[in-house]
Amino acid sequence: TVERATPNVYADQIEWMGRNLSRREHICISVHPHNDRGTAVASAELAVMAGADRVEGCLFGQGERTGNVDLITLAMNLYTQGVDPEVRLTDIDHVRRTVEQCTQMDVPERWPYGGDLVYTAFSGSHQDAIKKGFDAREEAVLAAGGDERAVAWELPYLPVDPHDIGRTYEAVVRVNSQSGKGGVAYLLSSTRNLDLPRRLQIEFSGIVQRHTDAFGGEITAEKLWEIFADEYLPATRENGLTPWGRFKLRGTTVTSADEGKQTILTVTLNDRGEERVLAATGNGPIDAFSNALSELGVEVHVLDYSEHALSEGTDAAAATYVEAEVNGQVLWGVGIDPSITTSSFKAIVSAVNRALR
After folding, report:
1. In a domain, 79, yes or no
2. Tens of pLDDT along 45-73?
3. What value, to the nearest 5°, has the Cα angle with vertex 221 and ends 220 and 224?
4. Nearest by Cα to 33 from 20, 9, 109
């Protein structure tokens, strides 16, 4: 039971015993590997492949010295290979809490399958791969008619679906100083339904990086949203932020002329506390709004535009992302409003306020 040899040699010993025992069919070969060399799981698995009938172990590697082989890991390793271990682990955290209560010993946070951090990625490249994996899986499930069971689990860095053992996806990606745009984008998408364009992901991840460099530690989903809202959306004292920004959008009226070829816009802006009513025309609402801002000495050229609904239904709010050149500076703005047109105006105001900040 003390690991004296490599797992393959141990398996050879088991195989030799099985071949040389008389009346083998009447004997149960049971292996009892400990983890003295850190290879108890490998020894047990190879021993079973070599003919062992039974494995003796403990939950989460409890036991003498470095512990007996972990039965949880053995069972989940079979499960990930499509073999039913006939052990119910659909609530692995309940199993872990019971073991910890009985033994008064904590399961390490990086223990396979059961630790707090085993389904969590902090590294930027890992987060980006996981996000792309979730996106690809979502497309595959839709192509399969919405049946998740028809699509094999093949996500990077996640050998098992956390849902299968009672975990959620919320902790899969967490943001700290190691994280990149993929992790930031994933959290905003999963918690706020915001699908940021790639260049906006890059810009905002730089803002998050500066925050983590300054304050250290991990950024929760709530804190990430606070940083995003403070940077791109109108900050209010109600949500604990300090209001800033030269302009605030108060109201707009949009009409069309010349059989819809020309847009006529009247916009009311709060400019540093002063109400201003501007009128302008353009070949669309965004062009007209840009022309209205030029009357105040702000030159805006929209370089990229995208928008999407934040939920389903006719009353769903829209999120608009605008990349704009404001007085020679290129940066992004974000607007959220039930009206797509108003959300696009808010996105331009966001970009302008950030440029003039």
Report:
1. yes
2. 999 999 999 999 999 999 989 999 999 99
3. 85
4. 9
Tell me which residue of 215, 114, 128 sits closest to 166, measured CA to CA: 114
C-alpha 50: how far from its chain's center? 41
Q: Is the dihedral of CA 117, 120, 121, 122 positive or negative?
A: negative
Contacts of 246 (CB under 8 A, 6+ apart): 271, 272, 352, 353, 356
Structural domain range at position 51: 7-103
Amino acid letter at 228? F
Tokens for 106, please give them.
Answer: 């904590």
Q: Residue 77 belongs to a domain with what CATH number?
A: 3.20.20.70
Q: Are residues 97 and 131 in the same domain?
A: no
Q: Which of 61-75, 101-115, 210-224 has the lowest mean pLDDT?
A: 210-224
The separation between CA 255 and the C-alpha centre of its own chain, rounded to angstroms, equals 41
Q: What would the pLDDT profile of 305-340 be if each residue is shown by its tens digit?
A: 999 999 887 778 999 999 999 999 999 999 999 999
Q: Which pairing describes strands 318-326 and 329-337: parallel, antiparallel, or unpaired?
A: antiparallel
H or E segment and range at residue 39: none
